[in-house]
Amino acid sequence: MDSIVSLCKRRGFLFQSSEIYGGVQGLWDYGPLGVELKRNLKDAWWRDMIAGHNELVSPAGAPSSFEMVGLDCTILMHPQVWKNSGHYDLFHDFMVDCRESKKRYRHDQVRGRFVEYRETKIFVTTLAEIEHEADEVRRRGMKYFKLRPKNADDLTVGDESITLDKLDSHDEVLGPDAKSLGTLTEPREFNLMFKTTLGALGGEEDTTFLRPETAQGIFVNFKNVLDSSRVKLPFGIGQVGKSFRNEITPRNFTFRSREFEQMEIEFFCHPSQSQAWYGYWRDRRLAWYKSLGLSDEALIMREHHTEELAHYSVGTADIEYAFPFLPEGEYGELEGIAHRGDFDLRSHMEGKLDPSTSPMTVELNENGKPKYRGSGKDLSYRDEESNEKFVPHVIEPSAGADRGVLAFLCEAFTEDEAPDEKGKMQTRTVMKLHPRLAPIKAAVFPLVKKDGMPEVAQEIYGSLKEHFNVFYDAKGAVGRRYRRQDEAGTPYCITVDGESLTDKTVTIRDRDTLEQTRVKIDEIVEVVRERVNE
Fold first, then answer.
1. pTM to 2 decimals?
2. What pLDDT is stored for residue 249 in this prediction?
3. Quick one: pLDDT at residue 121?
4. What is the pLDDT of residue 310?
5. Which segments within 118-258 are labelled E, that is strand?
C-alpha cells in the first residue's frame, strides 16, 4: 500500500488537500492523472447504467425491460429532507474520547492487540496501518512496561487484531495516543452531517446540512421525473455527485474521506417484483466491476445480517474488495445494493416512519402528532393498465467513485520485469488499468528528434487528440519513455521510426503483453478506438 500511495503522489494521481499547509485529514485532491481516471470511471458508469441503456429490450437476468434517466440535484436541500429521511436522528457513528490526549476516535476503527508482561495483561491500541500494527503494538507495549530492547522477548503480543468495539471494558486499554490505561470514555453517538447556514442572517431556523448522500435528492424529485419524462415503472434514476460526512477518524488513504463522490441509482418497481429486481441489480453491479478489471479473487458479495441492516432496509448486500491495507482475508465495502422498500417515498409523503413498527407507521411526538411533518405531496404511482395505485419499492445500487478509483488503482499496481533499451531485464512498475479507465489512452513518440520523425509523430498526435486523451513525448531514450507511460497506466505507445517515413506505418506497443505490431498511420485512430473499447 505504501508503494501505491507513493506512486499516486509522484505521478499525479492524488495529493492530500492543502498539503502546503500541512494537509487536512480525510480530504484529497485529484491530480492530472487522477482526475482523468476518476472522470473515466464516472463516464463508464453513466454510459453503462444510464445513457447507453436500451429500454426496448430486457437485459439478461432482468425480470423485464426498464427505463433509465438521470438527475443532478443540489448539495444543499430543505432541512426537513434530512429529518424525514432519518439522517437527523439516526445518522451517527459511535466515538470515544481520550481524557489524556483530548483526541477523539471512531469506536469500531481503533485496532489493537493484547499484550502480556509477566502476570499483567493489557490491550494496546494503535492507528498504524495493518502491516505495521504488530510492530507498533510491541513498541508501545515495551514503552508502557519500561522494557529495554534486550528484554523484548519477555513481552508477548497476541496474534489477533481486534477492534475496540469487540471489548467489554476500556479499563485495561492503552489508548492510541495515551500513556496511561483506562483513559478512553464509553462510546457515544456523533452525528456525521456537516452543518451549514442558508441565508445571511444565520439563525437556528436557517440551519441545514451538506448532503451525506445523493439519494434523497432523487426521492424528492420522484414526482417531477414521473410527470416530466413520461417514464413508467419499472424505471431507475441515476445521479453522480458529491456527498459529505464528518468522519471521526478518516483513514486508509481515500477509502474513508469527509468529502467524496457517489454514483447512485434509485430503481422504482412494483412491490411484488422488488425481490427479483434486488437480485438482478446485485448480480449486474458485481459483473460490472469484473468487466473493468477487478479480479474474482479480490471481490465478494456479502449479504448483511439482520442486525446490520439500516432502519429503512428490507435487505442489503455489499460488494466488497480485498484492499491491501486490510488484514489478509478481510474486505472493504465498494458498493452497497439496498432494498429500501417504500420507506423513503412514504416518509417524504407522510412524515418520518418509525423503524421499530411493522409495518412501519409515522413516528409520533409526545403530543401524538407526526414527529417530523411530511411534504403532503402524493408520491404514489398509478398503473395506467391495471389502474392500481401504490407506493413503489426502491432498489438502490450505491457506489463510491473514490473507493472505485482506489480499488482500480490497487488492482492495477503491478511490478514485473521488462527489457530496457539495451535488452537488459529491469524491474518495471506498471499500472494495468483497463483501457476504458486509463487516464491516457495512448502516447506518441518520435524515435529520434530528427529526420522528419517529430513532424510525423506530431501529426499522428493531433489526429488522436481529437478523440482521446493522448500524450506526446520526445525526451529521453525510448525505453525510459515506455516506463514513464507504464507507470501512468497508458495502454498503448505509438512510435514513429525510420520505416514510418517510407511505408507509412508505426509501431504500437501493448502495455501488458509488450507485443509490438505495425499499423498503418491512416488506420491508427480506428485501431486505438477498437482496442480501448474491447
1. 0.83
2. 67
3. 93
4. 58
5. 120-126, 155-157, 162-163, 173-174, 188-191, 195-197, 207-209, 235-244
CA distance 320 to 164: 22
Contacts 24+ apart (CB under 8 A), 512-518: 512/430, 512/432, 514/418
Task: Concatenate the DSSP letters of all residues of 463-494 into one string.
Answer: HHHTTS-EEE--SS-HHHHHHHHHHHT--EEE
Query: Which amino acid, residue 134?
Result: A
Joined together, the cell numbers standing for residue 304 give 448483511
Nearest to 320 by CA among 283, 291, 286, 293: 286
Residue closest to 115 by CA, chosen among 60, 79, 160: 160
The 3-class secondary structure across 116-142, one letter per residue, is EECCEEEEEEECCCHHHHHHHHHHHHH
Separation CA 473–CA 475 (nearest Å) = 6
CA–CA dist 506, 461 (Å, integer): 12
* Residue 428: Cβ-neighbour burial (10 angstroms; 0-12, 13-18, 19+): middle
Q: Find out whether 486 and 429 touch, Cβ atoms under 8 Å.
A: yes
Give residue 371's Cα distance to chain centre.
34
Determine contact, residues 405/412, Cβ cutoff 8 Å: no
CB 316 within 8 A of CB 308: yes
DSSP character for 50?
Answer: I
DSSP secondary structure letter of residue 452:
T
Given the C-alpha cell 459511535, which residue does it identify?
Answer: 94
Strand runs labelled E in 3-153: 14-16, 28-30, 67-70, 92-97, 104-106, 111-117, 120-126
What distance in Å separates the CA atoms of residue 142 and residue 131, rounded to the nearest whole number? 19
**Phi (first) and psi of residue 168, to 5 degrees:** -85, -25
- pLDDT given for residue 202 in this prediction: 66
Whole-angstrom distance, CA of residue 438 vs CA of residue 408: 10
Four-point Cα dihedral 387, 389, 394, 395, nearest 10: -30
CA 354, CA 418: separation in Å to the nearest integer?
61
pLDDT tens for 114-154 read 999 988 999 999 988 777 888 999 999 999 999 988 888 88
**Is-cis flag, bond preceding 187, omega within 30?**
no
**Residue 422: what pLDDT?**
67
Predicted local distance difference test score (pLDDT) of residue 424: 76
pLDDT of residue 530: 94
Give the sign of the dihedral formed by CA 206, CA 212, CA 213, CA 214. positive
pLDDT of 33 reads: 96
pLDDT in tens, 369-385: 888 888 999 999 999 88
Residue ranges in the chain whose pLDDT is less than 50: none
Which one, of 310, 320, 208, 189, lies nearest residue 255 by Cα? 320
Residue 163 and residue 93 in contact, taking contact as beta carbons nearer than 8 Å:
no
What gap in Å lies between CA 298 and CA 55, rounded to an integer?
A: 32
| SS3 call for 521 | helix
